[in-house]
Design brief:
Elements: H1 12-21, E1 25-29, H2 33-40, E2 46-49, H3 53-56, H4 68-81, E3 86-90, H5 99-111, E4 116-120, H6 126-134, E5 139-144, H7 150-153, H8 163-178, E6 183-187, H9 191-200, E7 205-208, E8 216-219, H10 221-224, H11 248-261
Parallel strand pairs: 1-2, 1-8, 2-3, 3-4, 4-5, 5-6, 6-7, 7-8
Bound molecules: 3-methyl-2-oxobutanoic acid.
């Protein structure tokens, strides 16, 4: 297993190759140029301009107040600092409520420099996913715990724990792959379910609180630096990489990338059985 840092630009093709070779890749959120540069030059393959910025930057208790204008602004900042990572950007709450709105909103993020747009949901996203993919816009479908639906879900809880929910999640993931999704992201899903979805799909699967078997791992940058805002309780799947660093924040990013590549993160302690 190589511990070399990637300097060539990461594309969807790179992630597909990693999946085929069973080589893990890492992802982190960034919202500005400085951190985008530090993350990208630390060998982290994917940067997510996440709507989690509503919580970690803006001080809200959910991602719902984040607008498309906010996302475009942060996307532009991240693009300036990025060196070679693939950049995904979140379509925020109610910016993809209809198919035509999905196209317009995704176009704004792509014009700002995104390489992939991320939408939260299941099979109901199939038609938007197909329309976006046909028009050259790669889609990441975020499934499991979808924070934009927090009011319907009734809390930040593990999803897919019962057999009916689990088999629905597997079939919806297949529908999204068949509709043209390029990546699936699973949040707060039991280890065995995330493993089955990862093995069933041929597109890369990224996990957060989804155990060690997904093709890639993602974390909110503030969480892995141990600076989760006080008002938010850090979830079980969070690990602070600062104590592992001998080189400040850059060292923590490198330690995270290495721990994912080596399969050391996440451990059972950061997973849901
Ligand atoms: O917005 C975000 O940071 C995310 C991650 C939790 C995956 O969607």
């Amino acid at each position: 297993m190589s511990n070399q840092i990637t300097t060539k630009s990461v594309s969807l093709n790179t992630l597909n190759q990693r999946k085929l070779k069973q080589e893990k890749f890492s992802a982190l959120t960034a919202y500005d140029a400085l951190f985008a540069e530090m993350i990208s030059s630390s060998g982290i393959e994917v940067i997510l301009v996440g709507d989690s910025l509503g919580m970690v930057l803006q001080g809200h208790d959910s991602t719902l107040p984040v607008t498309l204008e906010h996302m475009v602004y942060h996307m532009q900042c991240v693009q300036k600092g990025n060196v070679s990572s693939l950049i995904m950007a979140d379509l925020p709450f109610m910016s993809y409520a209809s198919e035509s709105q999905s196209l317009e909103s995704a176009a704004s993020l792509m014009r700002a420099g995104a390489h992939v747009v991320k939408l939260e949901g299941g099979a109901w996203l199939a038609e938007s996913t197909r329309l976006l993919a046909e028009r050259g816009i790669p889609v990441c479908a975020h499934m499991g715990l979808t924070p934009q639906s927090i009011n319907r879900l009734g809390g930040y809880r593990v999803q897919g724990r019962n057999p009916e929910q689990a088999s629905a999640m597997i079939s919806e993931a297949k529908i999204l792959e068949n509709s043209g999704a390029s990546i699936i992201l699973l949040e707060c899903v039991p280890v065995a379910l995330a493993k089955e979805i990862t093995e069933t799909l041929s597109i890369p699967v990224i996990g957060i609180g989804a155990g060690p078997h997904t093709d890639g791992q993602i974390m909110v940058m503030h969480d892995m630096l141990g600076i989760t805002p006080k008002a938010i309780k850090a979830p079980k799947f969070v690990k602070n990489f600062m104590p592992l660093s001998t080189d400040g924040i850059r060292g923590a990013f490198k330690a995270y990338a290495l721990a994912v590549r080596n399969g050391e993160f996440p451990s059972p302690k950061e997973s849901f059985e």
